[in-house]
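Appendix B. Chain record.
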Amino acid sequence: YMGGIIQKMSLVCSACSTIICPKEKVYLERCSILESHVYTYDLDLFDFVCPCYSATNPGDNRFDVIRIQPSEFVVLSGQATDEHTWFPPYKWRMAACHRCRCHLGWSFHHPQENTDSPLFFGLIVTRLRQRETIDTEEEELPDPPTFTHPTNLDAFLQALMRDGFHAFSDGYTAQSETDEQEEEDDEEAEDQTRESENEGT
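Structure tokens predicted for this chain:
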């Protein structure tokens, strides 16, 4: 494995510092709003300006939220509803940090489709922090060299596939037996030479 370390800016959970999304997933386009309870202003975030939505719920609680693309680090709860939605016609559900379960905001879904997949999140600015994070990126390895002529290894592998391993093992066994026989013959010849020398003395 060959890779490089990349430093990037991300939004993290203010409670546990879990990464929620990189800055590239923040929406810079404005969205239609429930004008009676929401107004939009520009927010300086990272090195850009994005729309922030100051939204009030039926309990008269106000939240400043930004829109981000769907994130795997956010978990959803509750049934999708379009009641008092800040971004009509989208339905909403509750959204929380997948690690510490801190309430981060809401997910928004297609009004006609019954799905668990959100179109975007509206996350509370004060529940997030801007943080420099570290990521790794895998580098592509160069292609192995191409040989135009077969090597000895190529020939061996081709013969192995053609004849099977037993052909090589049988040959090795036969060669081993031949070597052992030659060693025995040499030892026997040396013994005979010693006996002749002893008889001569």
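Further analysis of this model is presented in Appendix C.
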